[in-house]
Amino acid sequence: MNAQEIIRSLEAEQLKSDLPQIYVGDTVRVGVRIQEGNKERTQPYEGVVIAMRNGGINETITVRRIFQGVGVERVFLLHSPRIESIKILRRGKVRRAKLYYLRDRVGKATRVKQRFDRSM
Predict the structure, then answer these.
(1) Which of 44, 52, 54, 92 is within CB 3.0–4.6 Å of 58 for a Cys-Cys bond?
(2) pLDDT tens-digit profile of 67-85?
(3) How many C-beta neighbours within 10 Å does residue 94 have?
């Protein structure tokens, strides 16, 4: 057994199996575990998925939301133990893989069309 096989087997143990099928353009609510002193709580972060990267253990999504008139983006490592849950609220209908153009848009122009399908 070489080093790559060992690494791959260790990564396979860490992969989450309960993740929903996420697409770019979806509106999601990510439950993030936050440590405050000796207490732990879950804070929801809701926004539009504007990018997805990599695959396997290193898979990340970039979620953008507007908070007090300012755009805030956060990158989440999907298989991280800090991510408690991911819930898909709306499916977005988009025609590209990265929605970075939403950064330049303001107000109602930032809306993404909804996709209606039976997978939710």
Answers:
(1) 54
(2) 998 999 999 999 999 999 9
(3) 19
